[in-house]
Design a protein that fits this description.
Helix content: 10-25%
Oligomer: single chain
Shape: globular
Number of strands: 7
Number of helices: 2
Strand order of the largest sheet: 1-2-3-4-5-7-6
Strand content: 15-25%
Length: 152
């Protein structure tokens, strides 16, 4: 599984569970098994699938192994967001777009110290935009950010 990360980088990309080495690995052995064998210094995880593919994943608690993770993008691939994601202390960007069965996110997401961008576009997550916590603001519908993100 260690050879499944993008060569020369610290990024895991899964574009489909129906084809490709990583997608096939996850379909056969599960995401838990994959996460347990990947290097802990991953900086980015991007999991996506196109169309109406029925295979949805559950992010395992072992995601907390990746404490250097900067971005986690889960596009059209989950029905729920594991609260363990909130323990990723270096996460600056969280994208859960196009997950039509996703209806909420854990409240701890708003309390993540380094998180600067939250994208729930195309999901069914309902966020009271008139009562965003702290200095969170809207960049466009269903995309939230902290003003400090613009300084980067």
């Amino acid at each position: 599984a260690k050879g499944l990360t993008t060569q020369g980088s610290k990024k895991l990309v899964i574009e489909s569970f129906a084809r490709g080495g990583i997608g096939t690995y996850v379909a056969l052995y599960g995401l838990e098994d994959l996460f347990e064998t990947l290097p802990e210094d991953l900086e980015d995880i991007w999991i996506s699938q196109s169309g109406n593919q029925p295979y949805m994943i559950r992010i395992p608690d072992s995601i907390t192994r990746f404490q250097r993770l900067n971005s986690l993008i889960l596009e059209n691939s989950i029905n729920e967001l594991n609260p363990s994601v909130c323990k990723l202390t270096n996460l600056t960007a969280l994208g859960v777009e196009q997950n039509r069965n996703l209806t909420n996110i854990p409240s701890c997401v708003w309390e993540m110290n380094r998180l600067m961008v939250l994208n729930v576009e195309g999901s069914n997550v309902k966020i009271d935009e008139s009562n965003l916590p702290g200095s969170w603001t809207i960049i466009k519908p269903q995309v939230y950010f902290l003003p400090e993100a613009l300084e980067l």
